[in-house]
Amino acid sequence: MAETQKTSADIGIVGLGVMGANLGLNIAENGFTVVAYDRDSSKGSHLTNMAQEQLSDPSKINAYNDITQFIIALKKPRTILMLVPAGAPVDAVIHDFAPHLEAGDIMIDGGNSFFKDTNRRVEELAKKNIHFMGMGVSGGESGARHGPSLMPGGDRTAWEHAKPILEAAAAKADGEPCVGWLGRGAAGHYVKMVHNGIEYGLMELITESYDIMHRGLGLNLEELHKVYKEWTKGPMGGFLMEITADVLVQKDPLGDGYILPKILDTAHQKGTGLWTSEESLTLQAPTPVIDAAVTQRVLSSTKDQRLQASQKLAGPKSSISFNGDKTAFIAELGNALYGAMMLTYAQGIHLLQVANKAYDYGLVLETVAAVWREGCIIRSQLLKDLRNVYRNSPDLINPILDTNYSAKIVNTQENIRKVITTATPWGLPIPGFTSALSYYDTYRSAQLPANLLQAQRDYFGAHTFERVDQEGTFHIQWSTTE
Ligand code: 6PG
After folding, report:
1. Among the CATH numbers 3.40.50.20, 1.10.3720.10, 1.10.1040.10, 3.40.1800.10, which is that of 192-443?
2. Ligand 1 pocket, residue 199 CB under 6 Å
3. Which end of the chain has fewer beta carbons closer than 10 Å to its terminal beta carbon, N or C?
């Protein structure tokens, strides 16, 4: 703890968990003075020790567990960045700190808050003339420490004030900071929610590709490691591909061999993927790969039921075998994964474009793609393509409609079909790949069977239908057949 009270800190961090502590060190390392608060004094002491070990000037960061001392230490207007769990803890921090603030002070919520909560907080604090900004922070512990992707939105005054600090702390892509004001209201948290939805979709696709090669082709972990390592160098290379390669050959610190086979196959989730799916249905901008990913996490967690069902529900008659050219098939699988990943990003971007209109965020999709290029979990080579798409066509509703972007997906569609027709007879669940392909086939269909659906609706509910040959809405008396 600081022995003498200083009153010159550029920014205050509230919440000294992994993200808060590391972001604090990152900002201090970039030359800003940081004051940090956690009601648990051991967290403040831990941060002070980390600063001693890691910073050339540890005095750049001081920790308190007393709100008044923390507030006094801040330069006016005060900038407070919260990194506390989403939900009630954010409201609790606002409740405890806002009475100490003055008009013109700034609060930034750097957690994964639900965007509707952020809207409410922006409005409530605006009444007190406190500028509130919801900011997505991506990149986990290492990103926070060495350069996260930052997704701020909300009060523009707050952004202008905090900009130098956030730009210094953010990851850099081609020398540009991966941060930019994204839009009004809850724009920052909305973009982070969709980022996480895409994250869920990509993770699901990667795990399906692993299953196809592991259970399907019989590749061992070292062989799988080599495949993913190779894929990191290609057009779908990025953070999730890199960590997958690492995970495959991580040794078990508690025993012999690799850790992966010893990890229980029940996935958890904190909610951001589910929110994305809910939003996509509410706004009618479908995200089926993300929905499949959310569903698979839920199904994976019903381990007891799966164990029972595994004794009752038969799979395909013949056991898994592959007689073809494995190397050639793995290359096809790589292309299929690339195409399905492109479709997943497209679904997320489509949702953002629809939300942009629905909520009047003022999002600039080129900025979103630029901010996602480095530092975040979904960073990949694909973001360069997406940035180009939106640089040229800012209003494009879905990148799948861009000639260059779609050409790359078209090149992979036969590969996706091959992967599905190979893995489905094996009885492997691959809802990410199948929903990606169904989305593709639906999107490209000038004619769908929805005519029959409309007829059914009119039959039982007189819901009316439109005709292809006449204007207007129609209802007919449907006849029952013998
Ligand atoms: C990030 C991550 C981060 C966190 C997710 C995990 O961008 O750094 O998305 O925010 O890891 O919240 O989400 P689940 O617990 O739902 O998988």
Report:
1. 1.10.1040.10
2. yes
3. C
What tokens were used for 235? 């057009």
Question: Measured in angstroms, how far is the CA atom of residue 77 from the centroid of ligand 1?
Answer: 31
Query: Atom 12 in ligand 1: which residue has the minimum CA distance?
Result: 270
> Residue 192 Cα, ligand 1 centroid: separation in angstroms?
10
DSSP β-bridge partners for residue 473: 466
Give 11-185's CATH code, choosing from 3.40.50.720, 1.10.10.10, 2.60.40.1080, 3.50.50.60: 3.40.50.720
| Closest by Cα among 200, 227, 214, 350 to 284 | 350
Annotated catalytic residue, options 29, 43, 60, 199: 199
- What are the backbone angles phi and psi of residue 219, rounded to the nearest 5°? -70, 140
The phi, psi pair for 172, rounded to 5°, reads -120, 135
User: Tens digits of per-residue pLDDT, 249-301?
Assistant: 999 999 999 999 999 999 999 999 999 999 999 999 999 999 999 999 999 99
Burial class (CB in 10 A: 0-12, 13-18, 19+), 421: exposed
Report the top-level CATH class of 450-482. Answer: mainly alpha
Compute the Cα dihedral for 111, 115, 121, 122 and give only its sign: positive
